[in-house]
Design a protein that fits this description.
two-stranded antiparallel ribbon, about 260 residues
C-alpha cells in the first residue's frame, strides 16, 4: 500500500525559510495552589506560501514554451514531419503546464486570503450545493479581502474565468473525438489541444495572472491587518520572480 507524507514525531528543531509564516497558537496557563505556574509545551505552527513558488514554476514553463515556439517555427519551415510533430508536442506540453501552474498560484493565494475573509454560511453552502465555479469563489474572496471598485472586480472575475477555463481543459479534458480546430499560426486544422495550449496563450495566461496578483500585492487596499501582512510578503516574493517590475501582458497574443 502506497503511503505518502510525513509523520508526527518529536523533532530536535524546526527549519524556517523565506516565505514561511510562523505563529504560536494559544496555550493554557495554570496556577498551582503553591503559586507555581505551569503550561503546556509551546509548539510553533508554520505555513509556507506556495503561491510565489507556483508563479516561479509557471514562468519557467512559459519561457520553455516560448523557446519551443521558436523551434517549432523553424522546424515547420522544413519538411521533416517527425520533427514537426515533436516540436508541436514540446510547445503544447510546456504551455499546458504554464497555464495550469498560473491557475494553481491563484488557488494558493485564495487559500491564504480565505483564512482572513468571512464568507457567510449561506453563501458557502450555496457554493457547495451548486458546485460554484472556482473563479467565482476566488474573485468573491478577493473582493471581500480588498477594497475594490466594481469594474476592478468584474475584470478580475473575467480574467480568472478564462484562466480557470484553460486549467479545467487540462485537468478534465474531454475524451471524445472532435472536429479539428484551425491553428492560427500554422493555418492548419489540428486537434484542439495544440490550438489552446500553445506559447502565445501560455504567455498571456501567466503574465495576466501574475499582473493581477502583482497589482493586489503592490496597490491593493486590504480590509484586514492580516491581509496587509500577507500583501507585504507577497509583494517581496513577486519582486524576486519579476525583477523588472510589474508583468506586462502582451497585447498581440491570440486566444484561439
Amino acid at each position: 500500500m502506497l503511503s505518502l507524507g510525513g509523520t508526527q514525531q518529536r523533532m530536535p528543531g524546526i527549519y524556517i525559510t523565506r516565505g514561511m509564516t510562523v505563529s504560536i497558537p494559544s496555550f493554557p496557563i495554570r496556577f498551582r495552589p503553591n503559586g507555581e505556574v505551569e503550561s503546556d509545551p509551546i509548539t510553533l505552527h508554520v505555513h509556507f506560501d506556495v503561491c510565489p513558488a507556483w508563479f516561479q514554476i509557471a514562468k519557467r514553463h512559459m519561457e520553455s514554451a516560448l523557446i519551443a515556439q521558436t523551434k517549432r517555427q523553424q522546424v515547420w519551415a522544413g519538411a521533416d514531419e517527425n520533427a514537426k510533430a515533436l516540436a508541436l508536442e514540446d510547445e503544447f506540453e510546456a504551455s499546458m503546464q504554464a497555464i495550469m501552474a498560473a491557475a494553481i498560484a491563484w488557488d494558493a493565494a485564495y487559500a491564504v486570503l480565505r483564512e482572513h475573509v468571512v464568507i457567510p454560511d449561506a453563501m458557502a453552502e450555496k457554493w457547495r450545493k451548486r458546485r460554484t465555479a472556482r473563479y467565482t469563489q476566488v474573485s468573491e474572496t478577493v473582493r471581500r479581502a480588498f477594497i475594490m471598485k466594481p469594474e476592478g472586480t468584474s475584470a478580475l472575475r473575467a480574467n480568472l474565468k478564462e484562466i480557470y477555463r484553460y486549467r479545467d481543459l487540462a485537468v478534465h479534458p474531454p475524451g471524445k473525438i472532435e472536429k479539428p480546430m484551425l491553428h492560427p499560426e500554422l493555418d492548419l486544422g489540428m486537434e484542439w489541444r495544440f490550438v489552446y495550449f500553445r506559447a502565445r496563450n501560455a504567455e498571456l495566461a501567466v503574465l495576466a495572472a501574475a499582473a493581477m496578483l502583482w497589482d493586489l500585492a503592490h496597490n491593493g487596499k486590504p480590509k484586514d491587518p492580516k491581509v496587509t501582512e500577507y500583501q507585504k510578503t507577497l509583494a517581496v516574493r513577486l519582486q524576486e520572480i519579476f525583477p523588472n517590475g510589474a508583468p506586462v501582458v502582451p497585447t498581440t497574443a491570440v486566444k484561439e
